[in-house]
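Task 17 of the worksheet. Students: predict the tertiary structure of the chain below and write it out as C-alpha cells. Keep your answer in the requested format; marks are given for formatting as well as content.
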Amino acid sequence: MLRVEHLQAGTLPPLTFEVAAGECLAIEGPSGAGKTLLLRAIADLDPAPGQVFLNGAERNEWRRYVRYCAAEPAWWSDAPREAFKGAASGRAERLLHALGLDAAVLDRAVAALSTGERQRLALARALLDEPLVLLLDEPTAALDPQAAALVEELIKYQTLAGRSAILVSHDRGQIERLAHARLLLSKPETASVAAAAAP
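Model answer:
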C-alpha cells in the first residue's frame, strides 16, 4: 500500500491519502491545479514537506519500486535500446507487443520517433523491472484511440497483478474505466478524495 501523509506540493494544501495494492487513484483538476507537481512530489523528484510510505517503508527505502511516467518523457541516449539493456529475457518484447510496438523501434533514433511512440516506449521502460507503484501523467495524451486502448489495457493488467497506480488524466472516460477512487483538485488551495465506480 502507498500512503501519503501531509504531503504539500506547491500551493496545494497538505494531502493525506492511500492507494491500496491493485487499485488506481485518478487525480483530477483543471490545468495549473498542481496534478503534475503532486505526482513529482510523491516520486520524490521535487522537495516537498510530508511523508510517503510504501508498505510501511519510507522513501529512501522504496525509490526503485516506484516509477514516474511523465507526459513528455525524457531520454538519455540516441536510441531507446540503451534504456532496455539488462531487461529480463523477452520482457521488453512482450511489453512492446502489448503496446502495439515492434522491437525494431528500439534501434530508431529517439528524435525520429513520434510523440506517441516515445510515450509508449517510456511506459514500457518504466515497467521493465516490475515496480510496485506507477505514477502516470497523461499516459495517452499523444495517442490515437487504438494505441490509447492498448495502454489502458496494460494499466488494467498492472493493477490486476497487484500494483498500485496514480493516474493524471483529462479524459473522463479513461478515469471511469480505470480508477477506483478520485482525488479532486478543484482549486490550488482545496482538494478532496472521492470514491469512483469500480472499473
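Marker's comment: Residues 2-195 form a domain with the Rossmann fold fold (CATH 3.40.50.300). The longest strand covers residues 181-187.
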